[in-house]
From TrEMBL:
It is found in: Cytoplasm. Its cofactor is Mg(2+). GO terms for molecular function: crossover junction DNA endonuclease activity. InterPro entries: RNaseH-like_sf, RNaseH_sf, X-over_junc_endoDNase_RuvC. Its main location: cytoplasm. HAMAP family: RuvC. This is Crossover junction endodeoxyribonuclease RuvC. The gene is ruvC. NCBIfam families: ruvC.
Length: 193
């Protein structure tokens, strides 16, 4: 499985491609950070993110795009920019028919470090170790994009099994309700005395 991981942002948007092999083996294919100037118009900044993403999609042909889910932050303006960048990424992937998966920051941290409360240094250190990199990816946005790719590769099989189990449970519940309705309609109404 090839995953394009994206740590969305307007000033710095981390982007990485990670390949998953048998078991839990992962390999870094490419990593970078898309930067846009803070004083540029919003539309132009989003266009720069979109153009860079299109280029990565063309070059690396991922199977899925994993994006960090945006949570409210203290700075509403930053949260809005992050959400807008994430939307641009999701749109570009959807236009190509790619699956888009959103992962929470704590889910990514837990997958990579074992703790959903790990700090950026811990995430960077584990990403470096897991991928066998000779040096740590910088800035943290690059490491976060790699962590998203790893998280998705490791969690996708579990998510697929859960979705399959939920679908089976829904179908069983539907059949059970249909049998109950059938049994109720076939039962005698009772006799008058």
């Amino acid at each position: 499985m090839r995953v394009l991981g994206v740590d969305p942002g307007l000033t710095r948007c981390g982007i990485a491609v990670v390949d998953g092999g048998t078991g839990r083996s992962v390999r870094c294919v490419a990593v970078d950070v898309v930067r846009t100037p803070a004083d540029a118009e919003l539309a132009n900044r989003l266009l720069a993110v979109a153009d860079a993403l299109e280029d990565w999609l063309d070059r690396h042909r991922p199977d899925v795009v994993a994006i960090e889910r945006v949570f409210s932050q203290h700075n509403v303006r930053t949260a809005m920019g992050t959400a807008q960048a994430a939307g641009v990424v999701a749109l570009a992937a959807a236009r190509r028919g790619l699956t888009v998966a959103f992962h929470t920051p704590s889910e990514v941290k837990a997958a990579v470090t074992g703790s959903g409360r790990a700090d950026k240094a811990q995430v960077t250190a584990m990403v470096t170790r897991l991928l066998g990199l000779t040096e740590a990816p910088r800035p943290a946005d690059a490491a976060d994009a790699l962590a998203l790719g790893i998280c998705h590769i490791w969690r996708a099989p579990m998510r697929a099994r859960l979705a399959e189990a939920e679908a089976k449970a829904t179908e069983l519940a539907r059949r059970h309700k249909a049998r109950l309705a059938q049994a109720t309609s076939n039962s005698p109404k009772g006799t008058k005395q």
